Please model this.
Amino acid sequence: MKMKLAGKFLALFLFVVILTSIFELHAEEELRPYKLINADKLIINKIEDEYVTNLFGNVHFFYGETEFFSDKADIFELQKIARMQGNVRVYEDTLSLFADNVDYFRNSERLFLRGNVLATETHSDSTIRTFEAEEVEYFRNSREFFAKENVITYDERESIHGNCGELKYYLNDGYGYLIKKPLLSITGKDTLSILAEKIEYFKDYKKVAATFNVKTFSKDFLMVSDFLLYFADEEKAVYLGEPKFTSDLADATAIEFRIFFEEQKIKKAILQDSCYVQFSEVENQPKKSWAIGDLMEFNFNYGKIVFCEAKGNVSSYFLQEPTKNRNFSANNTKGEHLILKIDDQNRIKKISVNNKVAGIYKFEHKNW
Model:
């Protein structure tokens, strides 16, 4: 009888032990939603009601679908927070993140990266876009990326480099903006750069918008305006808000500019409303020739104007200074349509004025 009673107590004890183990294993799985792959050293401490896991050396673990590497990590299991230090690497789908320190907040799906931050996004065509900064916040659910302090961005596919104080990027939409002294440069055989108070990009740099105190420049020209729209596929820029163009050979103003580029050099320029252009035959010399009109179109060759057509209320004055091989001339005309052709030496080859023509032509003939 005693043997049977002892056997029952033993069976009950074993049942309790097994049941307790099952509950503990289940609790541990609930407590540790991350998957540890490797660590040279592991310490678990219980602080108040929370277990804190300290990982040291060659740390590698998954938290959800996100993969982490670091020299050291502290995982707060109740709060679901992971704090990593030293050579931190984070991999998720097409995005890779690198930093000195990273805090991951599992509940809000937020990553906070600090110190020598580098983010790399891989496009579908295997080209990359990179961001460098001192601090970055990344929200996994909404895929929003916010960088600040010494931000540098680069897009390999569009050959675009950028610098600014702060940047925000919505990965799902391909939209972002740069503020705090943003500078965007489109590189190729030449470099076209944009400065403004704010620069936005849409559809992965297919369209760029710059607002307030906009400066567009290359080695050939400077363009200032209040607003700019740049379309990458067409290599076209639209300038509004008192746009002004300046180069060594010509200055221009109008209500609106439309400029077409080829390999970052101006190929064509269309000016609309209240157009005024000044010319010079020699670089960095006074621009004494001028033309005005309602609509003006210019063709360029390697940064130099070779053709001009003006329509509507056209007035012009073209001065040809005397040289050893040519005479002085001055042509002051009005009309409705002007065509001007310029040779590769920046000398006027042909002036044609049509419709309601009036004006004065002066010349001086000398026998050399």
